[in-house]
Write a structure and sequence with these properties.
This protein is of the alpha/beta class. It has two domains: 7-178, Rossmann fold, CATH 3.40.50.620; 191-282, Pantoate--beta-alanine Ligase, Chain: A,domain 2 (2-Layer Sandwich). It has helices at residues 12-24, 40-52, 80-90, 100-103, 122-125, 129-144, 156-168, 198-203, 206-219, 225-237, and strands at 7-9, 29-34, 55-60, 94-96, 148-152, 174-178, 242-250, 265-273, 276-284.
């Protein structure tokens, strides 16, 4: 038996009409915002939504406002047919795939910006990125009105920024952060992995290798952040196609860099492998 395809809607009016019926039936709605080109990481969010909600909405929208002028907006993979098949297999109920003109009216001039936690790391490398992310996510929260929304830990800072926005603006939607899903060799799943050449794909595993090394060092009692970062840098630098943008050990709530591991600590990095920018992270816990 073929799995049932989720309903596909492309306008806000259609979306709200469908969800009005769901609400009248007293069903709890879960939201999974994506830009499409779905992989098992995205699908794990759908499954998490299905576990705690009665009806799961997946949004597929390549949001132009979170891309910088020299980034990959035009080439970002758009695979709606394949995405619909994947979502049918994991039981999504409805897909909202709007056009740009449906999301951003002519003359759009209202933005949602988060301050401190949006500034370092990705905010430093991509100065307009989080303004676009928070604005579109707030729009999706308003369009869908879900009881819960599901995001992945791979985009750790993004999840932190969205949680801060939701708390500060009294958004009633629960924010759930789900674990990173990795390939068998450790590479964090990402839609941008499709850009990697075969050689770059082999070398991209240095990101997860460096994070595993950080975990091992902390487990063995190394607590000096500078020493751990230097060892991580050595692992990544061994790949000749890899160019480090940042490596940080930071407080997981404020993203302030730490000098010594004294409690749960975020290890996060961004690396360009050949021409593809990849990010990854893990949480370090001494004495675990």
């Amino acid at each position: 038996m073929q799995p049932n395809s989720p309903q596909l809607v492309t306008t806000i009016d259609e979306l709200r009409k469908k969800l009005l019926e769901v609400r009248r039936a007293g069903r709890r709605i879960g939201l999974v915002p994506t830009m499409g080109a779905l992989h098992e990481g995205h699908l794990s969010l759908v499954l998490a939504s299905r576990e705690s909600c009665d009806f799961t909405v997946v949004t597929i929208f390549v949001n132009p406002t979170q891309f910088g002028p020299d980034e990959d907006l035009d080439s970002y993979p758009r695979t709606l047919d394949a995405d619909m098949r994947a979502l049918a297999r994991c039981g999504a109920d409805l897909v909202f795939a709007p056009a740009n003109s449906e999301v951003y009216l002519p003359g759009h001039q209202t933005w949602v910006e988060v301050d401190t936690v949006a500034k370092p790391l990705e905010g430093s490398c991509r100065p307009t990125h989080f303004r676009g992310v928070t604005t579109v996510v707030m729009k999706l929260f308003n369009m869908v009105g879900a009881e819960a929304a599901f995001f992945g830990q791979k985009d750790y800072q993004q999840a932190l920024v969205i949680r801060r926005m939701a708390d500060d603006l009294n958004v009633p939607t629960e924010i759930h952060i789900c674990p990173i899903i990795r390939e068998a060799d450790g590479l964090a799943m990402s839609s941008r992995n499709a850009y990697l050449s075969s050689i770059a794909r082999e070398q991209a595993v240095v990101l997860s290798k460096s994070l595993r090394l950080a975990e091992e060092l902390v487990d063995r009692g190394e607590l000096d952040a500078g020493q751990i970062i230097e060892r991580m840098r050595e692992v990544i630098s061994a790949a000749d196609l890899a160019k480090i943008q940042y490596i940080t050990l930071a407080d997981p709530q404020t993203l302030e860099p730490v000098e010594e591991i004294s409690g749960e600590t975020l290890a996060a990095l961004a690396v360009v492998v050949e021409d593809t920018r990849l990010i990854d992270n893990c949480l370090l816990l001494p004495g675990k």
